[in-house]
Automatic annotation (TrEMBL):
Organism, as annotated: Methanohalophilus halophilus
Domain Dihydroprymidine dehydrogenase: 9-119
InterPro entries: DPD_II, FAD/NAD-bd_sf, FAD/NAD-binding_dom, Helical_ferredxn, SudA-like
Protein name (Swiss-Prot/TrEMBL): Glutamate synthase (NADPH), homotetrameric
Highest taxon listed in the record's lineage: Archaea
Residues of the FAD/NAD(P)-binding domain: 132-437
Pfam families from the UniProt entry: Fer4_20 (PF14691), Pyr_redox_2 (PF07992)
């Protein structure tokens, strides 16, 4: 896919990948083998008819292609950009056994962008079921559940804590990977299904889950995992230490990258250390470069083989000049004048036997202590659900990690209450949250139809 050149894109927040032309999309779709037993569909968490929409691209009927996509996925422009297709549908593509798999994600993006250019058509509103459902959280899980429930005829109200809907799509993923006008387009489509979205509404403070259960016929909880984790090392409270959540929320939701046009400043610094190696770490590192960081280093205690970030994101970060200091673990953040950061003391690691995650356990190497100079440190080692959602709802069962316990087959937790996405699994992918939202909506539909 055409892209901005690295030397150009590190000076702007414009989208890196530029999308297929019609000719490129048709040529790529023509590579599909039209398998009798397509395995790619089994790899899609929201069960898109992949051969169906690809076939329509091949026939140059792009309207039919987007129609097929939207039968299963209300957020195709988002999924086409941030879904890890290489680990899902494309991983199972037969073409991938001898060469490059079909670029399913890029074709999905093409269809969504084509529709956007031509004008998104308002969906037909179904006949009302007379039932009303509350959805907590306007992130990928909540938006997907809301769309599915609205298409079934239920009245749906989404309660969102932030001042804009989208969840991690809005506050977490940078503009250069997912433009916010794309998110707004997808949210507007869901609004046009009849979904009411109330922003600045913190469940657990304004109302409890129990109060919503009394007020609505069913409830879905999709509040994500917005509470950052820290390492618990000396110096994490110094000026210049961010959680990745705070850093990216300032950059994305609060538009710090457009300061002073927007009134949220952000201190980026010259030498930035990002701790972690997932997609969030890549987003933070690449954002720091664009904000003027002269030297941005990703520090990770395992090797590149264990990194959880998408291969594409790692490659883009390397192209842009991000330094990767692998098999390295921070043990202390060093303090300078006025409680500011001056560096990160680290120790080298080696990999031992696999731990509970299946990855080889990192073991410190004695005498390998060293310092990486830094004036900004961004901690990107994971998140957990914010416990405020559970206030006043003692019946809800949670784990020691703060996630909601559900039946994995139905996503149900209490009678009439389902949950899904990161609030159940911990931090995961956008598409897995969408899959959970769709699964929960199916359960709620059966519950409201007295099919349990």
């Amino acid at each position: 896919m055409p892209e901005q050149k690295p030397k150009e894109r590190i000076r702007n927040f414009g989208e890196v990948a530029l999308g297929y032309t019609e000719q490129q999309a048709v040529i790529e779709a023509g590579r599909c083998l039209e398998c009798n037993d397509p395995q790619c569909v089994a790899g899609c968490p929201v069960n898109i008819d992949i051969p169906g929409f690809v076939s329509q691209i091949k026939n140059k009927d792009f309207d039919k292609a987007i129609g097929i996509l939207k039968e299963s996925n209300a957020l195709p422009a988002i999924c086409g950009r941030v879904c890890p297709q290489e680990e899902q549908c494309e991983k199972l593509c037969v073409l991938g056994k001898k060469g490059a798999p079909l670029a399913i994600g890029r074709l999905e993006r093409f269809c969504a962008d084509y529709e956007r250019d031509e004008g998104v058509k308002s969906p037909e509103k179904p006949k009302s079921s007379g039932k009303n459902v509350a959805v907590i959280g306007a992130g990928p899980a909540g938006l997907t559940a809301a769309a599915e429930l609205a298409k079934a005829g239920h009245g749906v109200t989404i309660y969102e804590a932030l001042h804009e809907p989208g969840g991690v799509l809005t506050y977490g993923i940078p503009e250069f990977r997912l433009p916010k006008d794309i998110v707004r387009q997808e949210v507007d489509y869901i609004r046009n299904l009849g979904v009411d979205i109330k922003v600045d509404y913190v469940i657990g403070k304004i109302k409890t889950l129990d109060e919503l259960r009394d007020e609505f016929d069913a409830v879905f909880v999709g509040t994500g995992a917005g509470l950052p984790r820290f390492m618990g090392i000396e110096g994490e409270n110094l000026n210049g230490v961010y959680s990745a959540n705070e850093f990216l929320t300032r950059v994305n939701l609060m538009k710090a990258y457009r300061f002073p046009d927007y009134d949220t400043p952000i201190k980026c610094g010259n030498k930035v250390v990002v701790v972690g190696a997932g997609n969030v770490a890549m987003d933070a590192a690449r954002s720091a470069l664009r904000l003027g960081g002269e030297e941005v280093t990703v520090v990770y205690r395992r090797s590149e083989a264990e990194m959880s970030a998408r291969i594409e994101e790692v490659e883009h970060a390397k192209e842009e000049g991000v330094i990767f200091d692998l098999l390295t673990n921070p043990v202390r953040i060093l303090e300078g004048e006025n409680k500011t950061v001056t560096g990160v003391e680290c120790v080298n690691m080696e990999l031992g036997e696999p731990d509970d995650s299946g990855r080889r356990r990192p073991i410190p190497i004695e005498g390998s202590e060293h310092v990486i100079d830094a004036d900004i440190v961004i901690i990107a080692i994971g998140t957990s659900p914010n416990p405020v959602i559970f206030a006043g709802s003692e019946e809800l069962e949670t784990t020691s990690k703060g996630t909601i316990v559900v039946n994995e087959d139905t996503m149900s937790s209490l009678a009439g209450l389902c949950a899904g996405g990161d609030v159940v699994t911990g931090a995961a992918t956008v598409i897995s949250a969408m899959g959970a939202g769709k699964q929960a909506a199916s359960t709620i539909n059966r519950y409201l139809g007295n099919q349990f």
